[in-house]
Amino acid sequence: MKAFVDYQNDVTAKDVQLAVREGMMSIEHIKRYTTTGMATDQGRLSNMNALAIASGALGAPLPQVGLTTFRLPYSPTTFGTFAGSSRGDAFDPVRRTPSHDWVVAKGGVFEDVGQWKRTWYFPEGSEDMHAAVARECRVTRQAVGQFDASTLGKIEVVGKDAAEFLERFYTNPWKGLKPGRCRYAVLLNEAGYIIDDGVVGRLTDDRFHVTTTTGGAARVFAMMEDFLQTEWPDLDVWITSTTEQYAVIAVQGPKAREVIAPFVEGIDLSNEAFPHMSVASGRFAGLPCRLFRVSFTGELGFEVNVPARHGAKVWELINAEVVKQGGCVYGTETMHVLRAEKGYIIIGQETDGTVTPDDAGLDWAIGKKKFDFVGKRSLSRPDLVANGRKQVVGLLPVDPKQMLEEGAQITAEANPAKGTPALGHVTSAYWSEALGRTIALAIVKDGRARHGEVLNVPMPAGAISVKVVDPVMYDPEGTRLNG
Amino acid sequence: MAEIYTPVAGLAPVLRQDAVSIQKTAPIARLSFRGRAEAQAAVAGALGFALPQAPLSASAGAGKAALWLGPDEWLLLAPEAELVAFEAAVNAAVAGLAASVTDISHRQDAVLVSGPRATWLLNAGVPIDLALPAFPVGMVTRTLCHKAEVILWRKAEDQFVLECWRTFQPYVLEHLLDAARELSAA
Asked: Closest by alpha carbon to B6, among B142, B117, B168, B161?
């Protein structure tokens, strides 16, 4: 019969008897052999019974068997004692961006992104989230939107081997990038899977401004340091986190140039002098500034980097111009919608640690002539070059009002037989104000060869038919980037 | 010698008790310097004194300071108004040498923790031994205050600079203020 003695460690009477049969004589050995009395209650619930069973098995009186050593805490201790001051807002750091107080005053709604508070959306009047996001999307594409991008990880990579280091670290080529220009960067792990991305700007021959995802900032920094210390200590290059040095304000939309122009000194903002994917140092509202011409919306866009303590002031200055131009502030939800319309992936949403650059349609971001980079060798592994891998695609529900659910499975059949493997899953799903319909991104087996096919997303209320399309669903020619 | 860290003029202390106080400090210029031996020697020209080479030590002079943070890493401090000139001077000193100079003036914020119970209060969140023989005046280290990375520099027997990344300061202060309640109740 199975009779439990220690309820925490699942020790039975039979286990104690077996310990004795195996030759354990001392109660301390019986304890270690069976783990009885070794759980967090330190035998409070079990020890006397275990000792009595041992006593019977050993044929020795209980007092002679003796007691085991108790360890702290052996009297009840409240969780509060363990937590100490780590409670409420002090449980984990709450990191706030320079626009935080302004957003609170405007009634913006926050979401937690790691330790950061980011503005999710800015409801006006009686707007619900859907209405607010639709308006923010519409106004940004028609006029201009302002967005706090301060949480993006920033790493200053400096030294005469800076380009060589980035060449080995990211998939892209860097040595040919001219000072004043930027490039989209993809980071793989050693297994060849995408783990981060960002934009890297070359400030001078030996100084780069690297951006990472918000959530990946600490991870990427640690990985860089790891490689520098253990793999390439010979390189003359150092990394410094500058995430908190700068407040970053993104200004996106056809009127973006008009918004920032009144403040910019020392940088020619024309398309010719400062095209898409440019970076320059200058002054903004009299403050030192690094200005990027980049876009995560598909619109003409700039990102203004100013020293962080001036961030709140610059945010308000820019906002006054944004209002003048008929623009608005937008939050992370609108940012997600606008980038999804353009098929720009988000690490951790379209990628899940098993997605390669080719799966994500980012083959173009690989420096094919490069001798090496982190993950390069793995990209030629048989399973990574085999047919049938899941690839990022766009999905348009056949019913344009039908919203898909993120994480939902995708199958060929509307009512697949039980046990049918899914072809993939929905990774992002939104109402697209610009397209006047719902859209989604997904990863689907052989997805690129399926453009035009109709697949199904089986749901409890019935299957949703979806058309597979190219992930770039809005402005496929990219003309809007030029303003 | 002029103190690098000074309380923000006209700002009430974050904490004021008989035995310990916490004051926010005014902005200063901060440069992260990384580099090899030749560049380390060259920085002395811009500083007016040599970089401290003993682990966990600091050097100061002419209104500037250099804090040893690692075998090839120093935090260089100067008055806020001198940032542009200071950064230019350090960059000029190491031009062509293996080094990195990065402005992190706004990345970090510091408080002064002062008073006879300063070590007691800090030890509510900082796990290292702050007894004088173990952590003498002038010693500087990068350590943790609860979950936040901090730089701790002992300026006097009963005064410390506690510096951390800007967005972590409210978290660090919340823990210290919570511990101070115990001190005031005693």
From this structure: B161
CB atoms near residue B72 (< 10 Å) = 16
AA letter at B35: G
Both tokens assigned to A185: 């960067």
C-beta atoms of A245 and B106 within 8 A = yes
Residue A348's identity, in one-letter code, is G
Residue B72 to residue A238, Cβ atoms within 8 A? yes
| pLDDT tens digit sequence for A423-465 | 999 999 999 999 999 999 999 999 999 999 999 999 999 999 9
Residue of A nearest to B104 (CA): A245
Pairs across A and B, CB distance < 8 A: 81
A95: phi then psi, degrees, rounded to nearest 5: -95, 125
For B80-92, write each residue's pLDDT tens digit. Answer: 999 999 999 999 9
CB distance from B35 to chain A under 8 Å?
A: yes
Interface membership of B2 toward A (CB under 8 Å): no
Domains annotated for chain A, with CATH where assigned, are 4-65 (1.10.10.1100), 387-472 (2.40.30.110)
Question: Which residue(s) pair with A382 in the sheet?
Answer: none
- Specify the pTM: 0.91
List domains and CATH numbers for chain B.
15-25+108-185 (3.30.1360.120), 28-103 (3.30.70.1520)
